[in-house]
Amino acid sequence: METVMERECSALGGLFQTVIGDMKGGYPVWDDFISKATKLQSQLRTTVVAVAAFLDAFQKVADLATSSRGGTRDIGSALTRMCMRHRSIEARLRQFSLVFLDCLINPLQEQMEEWKRAANTLDKDHAKEYKKARQEIKKRSSDTLKLQKKAKKADVFGRGDLQPQLDSAMQDISDKYLLLEETEKQAVRKALVEERSRFCCFVSMLRPVVDEEMSMLGEITHLQTLTDDLKALTMDPHKLPASSEQVIVDLKGSECTWSYQTPPSSPSTTVSRKSSMCSSLNSVNSSDSRSSGSHCHSPTSHFRYRASSSSSSSVLPQQTPARLSSVSSHDSGFMSQDAFQSKSPSPMPPENLQ
Amino acid sequence: METVMERECSALGGLFQTVIGDMKGGYPVWDDFISKATKLQSQLRTTVVAVAAFLDAFQKVADLATSSRGGTRDIGSALTRMCMRHRSIEARLRQFSLVFLDCLINPLQEQMEEWKRAANTLDKDHAKEYKKARQEIKKRSSDTLKLQKKAKKADVFGRGDLQPQLDSAMQDISDKYLLLEETEKQAVRKALVEERSRFCCFVSMLRPVVDEEMSMLGEITHLQTLTDDLKALTMDPHKLPASSEQVIVDLKGSECTWSYQTPPSSPSTTVSRKSSMCSSLNSVNSSDSRSSGSHCHSPTSHFRYRASSSSSSSVLPQQTPARLSSVSSHDSGFMSQDAFQSKSPSPMPPENLQ
């Protein structure tokens, strides 16, 4: 009987050791995880910076479309909405990389020290208890062996008088084995709980990261309507919208008109002269002066503003306030350009002919 | 009359020049966009590499849980599913960075050369035509002026005979102005269409990128059920699942048992000895031999396999085939470890006591 019980206790002890060994053998895996997560996190951080710079450039393209002479204002507004949605995605990505560090990488690194201490304590305590129990059983066993020999010798003279003592000793060993088995089972359970709680702890650290990841999804879902808007607006690149034709019509009745600037004969200087004119226009536009005196184009730009607002507000009502402010700021930029243009002296005034 | 028409034609010519100027002034904006997009794309490419390395490390953590002695196999399976879903996200991210380069950055760069050529051609053609038309009108105007003077002088002698000629000349100038106005309107429309078609072209290049971005969303949506699974599994870290208790129960009736290995007295060598034992266990596990002779733990592992399959197959049926293969490969790994463990000579065989 003792051989079977001995084997079972040893098996439980072996299982305990293997579980502890597994935990200790897992440290390089956890270390590798922390190292790769740290690298990914720093990569995400620099990606966020690149995304921010990209979106700045994207917004400038959208502004280019919005501040044009009337042919692409609608596309500019849609591109601005697309850009703003990506700003939200950028913010989520930034938040994601922060949570990745603060909720997973750093706490896991701290937790690992705790894990190492806990496993060592479990192992040491178990080894001490197991050794003590086994030594006690061993001593009782050899005592019982001696008692058995004594009983065999005593058998010749007066048999039955050592049997109760022998039975009691055997029972004692059996009880001690049962106790050891129960202790070992508890130790195995403790080790399994320790092992499981590590993964539970890991999952609890992982969850806010995945939550943050999923909240990026909330931003991405809105992209569908935005890309549909853009598709509809750019369906036919060679058809001008009504607002573009309006620019030509408005020009006729307007008091402040553009005037043709005779280009010099050399084509190369034409380009440089034009571009310098454009850069001065752009500088006026970027200063975004709302105090320009002449507001001759106001009716037209208001017409356009209302038209674009009513056509797309039903699709994305939550975007309306932000988009309106962007459009109105460009309206002001548009007007200040007109004012600048109307004030510039014409190199070929209409009066010089007749 | 001519003064008004002159002014209107000049205004249209000025508008044309401004639209062309806007397009030319936009080149630095497009260049900046391409530059920032290129930087972001290369950043995304290195991020994909970091994600792949991170997921390798993540999978090893999942394997650690799956290949444990029974306490965390369920968590390991859920972590493996989480990891596999992120592999799909990684693949989408890789695809996204490719599409970003192939569908947006490279074509846009090529398109810009085309845009520059087109704007220069528009500008040159317009300047030539405008100049020619204006010179012709100027000549007719001065001819008409001479005719008017002649008519005034002729008025003294015989009045009416030059009037029809004068009327015809005036009508001719008026017609020429109307023609110029129409030509200028067409030129402005052409310029506006050219400007608009650039943004349409840009949007058409942007769309596959946004589509790819949104298809990442399809992968992310599945994360919710996976994180819910993990949350449910790790709700109580200190409660062992039935399968863990089964490991202890199975140990009793099993033919091939673990055995306790007496640790040496020094605690430091204990750790190094354990970890070397574990690494040899891991190497057996990673070789994933399915041809291990001893299959003593088969019934237990099959029980666990069926239990975990039925408990979560209703939640994620589409994941079943992949997960099953992962679990079964780990079952095989688990068994080969058992075989290894049962074959290892015990330093304290149960026979050496009694």
From TrEMBL, chains A, B:
Q: Which UniProt keywords apply?
A: Actin-binding, Coiled coil, Cytoplasm, Phosphoprotein
Q: Which Pfam families match?
A: IMD
Task: Tell me the ranges covered by the IMD domain, including all copies.
Answer: 1-254
Per its UniProt entry, which superkingdom is the organism in? Eukaryota
Comp. bias regions, Low complexity: 259-301
Q: Name one GO biological process term.
A: adherens junction maintenance
UniProt region (Disordered), positions on chain: 259-354
What GO annotations for molecular function exist for this entry? actin binding; phospholipid binding
Q: Which InterPro entries match?
A: AH/BAR_dom_sf, I-BAR_dom, MTSS1/MTSS2
List the SUPFAM superfamilies: BAR/IMD domain-like (SSF103657)
**Compositionally biased, Polar residues: which spans?**
315-345
Gene Ontology cellular component?
actin cytoskeleton; cytoplasm; cytoplasmic side of plasma membrane
Localization, UniProt: Cytoplasm
Task: Say which family it is in.
Answer: Belongs to the MTSS family.
Protein's name in the database? Metastasis suppressor 1
